[in-house]
Amino acid sequence: MSLIKTDAPGRRLLLMGNEAMARGALEAGVEVCAAYPGNPSSEIIGCLSQVAEEMGIYVEWSVNEKVALEVAAAASLAGLRGLAAMKQNGLNVASDFLLNLNLTGTKGGLVVVVCDDPSALSSSNEEDSRAFARLADLPLLEPSGFQEAKEMTKWAFELSEELGLPCLIRSVTRVSHARGNVELGELPTQRRRAHFDTSKPILPVPVVWAHRLLHQKLAKCRDRFHGSGFNQYRGPQRPELLILTSGAGFMYSLEAVSNLGLGDRVGIAKLGTTWPLPETFLKEQLARSQKVLFVEEVDPFMESNVKGFAAQNQTQLGPKIFLGKSSGTIPDIGELTPDHLIKVLRELFDVRYQPRPQAYIQEAMEAASHLAPPRTLGFCAGCPHRATYWAVKKALALDGREGFVLGDIGCYSLGMGPAGFFQMKTLHAMGSGAGLANGFGQLGRFGLDQPVLAVCGDSTFYHAAIPALVNAKYNGSSFLMLILDNRATAMTGFQPHPGTGRTAMGETVDPIDIEGLCRALGVQVKSVDPFDLDSTVEVLTDFLRQEKGVRVLVLKQECALVRGKRQGRLFKIRVDQDRCLGLQCGCNRLCTRVFRCPGLVWDSTSGKATVDDAICTGCGVCATICPASAILKEAV
Amino acid sequence: MLLEKDPWNLVITGVGGQGNVLASQILGQILVDKGYLVTIGETYGASQRGGSVMSHLRVSTRDQFSPIIPEGQADLVIGLEPIEVLRVMTQYGNPGTMALINLRPVHPIEVIAGESRYPEVEEVLLKIKRLSSRIWILNATEIALDMGDPIFSNMVMLGALSALSLLPVDQEGFCSAAQKLMGSHRMQDNLLAFQKGKMAIKEYKNG
Ligand code: SF4
Ligand code: SF4
Fold first, then answer.
1. Global pTM value
2. ipTM of this predicted structure
3. Is the CB of A384 under 6 A from ligand 1?
């Protein structure tokens, strides 16, 4: 259910930060929204897509972030309001376009929301996307709460329109994926009419002229930040320490100061507009105290900018003691927490703080290490990726030439660990498995005699693997590409992609056939069902033996979670307790110890395997792996 | 209604796929409807099932607090799985923390694979008892399975929470919040689960 369309100004709802930003966009009258899914950003477009029809807006899941930004920018160039959303890695993909769009400028409000993931809770890196605001000379806003996330998004559209520049919003996981009270505002009743002015082309030339204009716009932006309510100060007139913070750091700072009772000694200045620097506001704040502590997540973005500003204005501001990441006071990796801040302030002010007895901590720690075994992530019961990696492991062993798999981003990244039998050997960006394979596949001339494999999911195929495949075919690289087609962008919440046959707004469309596409490239392609282990291994071995050229194997089997919802189990599975020899047989518990489907359970009393009916999804794959043929499947 | 402590901090913990997020969201919406300021922080991992998950709920009448509870400041831990409660205590528990626990274990893959052992639930309860001021138990999974689907366990737990009267969670509030978030789909079943949870809760006595 989507709450974000609730038409009741003044009502308070509990909204996720991402939903709050989506609501802000609706209140601003956004017309076109596009994104490629990626946590922690996925819900922004996810919830907008649910209300698209009713609100009369266009929403799409694009094939990648660059295209998403181009779609939203087109709306802007036609005088409408556009929103593009992505995670931090996504901005890297979109940046090529962004760093030209800044020069040409925009028309209707264009807002780019980038959700960073400090501590990389669901990411392959924790990059700080704010660097792009400086790089591209674009305004940057950072919400530090839920109500603000909504208000800021709404304002970002106005600002963008006034300046003729895209406006960036940087959120973080603890804002995007946390929930809090949000008071609703008015929804617009009218839509704009799209029109593209054909009288002059939109080009970044002459470049130097456009660059100067960009700087002028940014200077205007600085003026607009003056007096912005998103920059606030809380605390005494002349604090002993001034905290300068942004984003989630503000919440943590407030919490630490109040926990330690330092409210009359420490002041907190929060920047909501972090680039360009709100100079007037900053001057007022810096004048309050000689000692300044920077509290922000990941890079010292604000810290170095403000220090530069202070150096430029030192005659007026006087000497300062700056504490933050450079001084080692605040960690320069990972996300912050209230506890980080409590520790830092406790040391700076030498105050006592004992949240609980030391003996309690020790006892709890001992109890947990003794009684609470760890839980590592694995593939779901009945996940086709488990079967795929099993087949790959087998085929590579049969082949015997130390072949290896290059991978990328998706559920199947777990192929690096025990869930995928340690088969995946590299992990970088979307499509990088295929890209790296292009290079490895050329190293035969330098003596590389190991088979090269790459994996990518279906959504990743459309996002970033197609150019890699074109390159491989044309330049004659040799590798085997595995496309794990589970008919879903499963990792981020089952968003549709061009292979699924439906759109963000729920329309049914013609899917774009992966095999057909490969065939059109002149690439050899076959499809198998990974649940059919024997033929999968056979085709794999066969494809591995052909040493020249790029070959594509599509492993087609629906994600277990999607299938479970649609049709329930395929087979009824049981273990024949007479045939299962357990520890006695040479299998050494192959099913539970190695294959590790959570649907199979090791019964230590009988020393045999059984099936947990509550978990098993009935894919039937385990029946194939048991050497004693003890696992039986019956059709349901 | 004023809170005994402000902010009042609650942790809901369990294993991915148990409906932890939905439970915290419904509870949060009930409290927002009653006029409280609520912040919920969730631990997000990969979407795969089987890992430990936890939601932090901060309830206040005066301020919007951060989505992460500071060390040792949980007032109540709701556990959809017993050993997850123990794990949470190491970081957020204190001698005054209370716990409400679903007795049904979910075995980690390492236990299934025979690499580690799942302890006796009784042993875990005794330990939690020592580390908290009060604990309540019920077999929410069993109740949900009796209703035909383990998916209802989280609603059973919310029903149990309402019986404790620590927070203003009543049937009316539950219905309106659940309706908002899930629509009318299976509302009857959810309500039944809530009511069953309310009845089933027991105070755990040491030994
Ligand atoms: S059939 Fe076997 S492999 Fe498939 S889900 Fe059930 S236990 Fe797991
Ligand atoms: S079911 Fe088969 S593989 Fe598993 S323990 Fe028994 S004999 Fe070994």
1. 0.94
2. 0.94
3. no
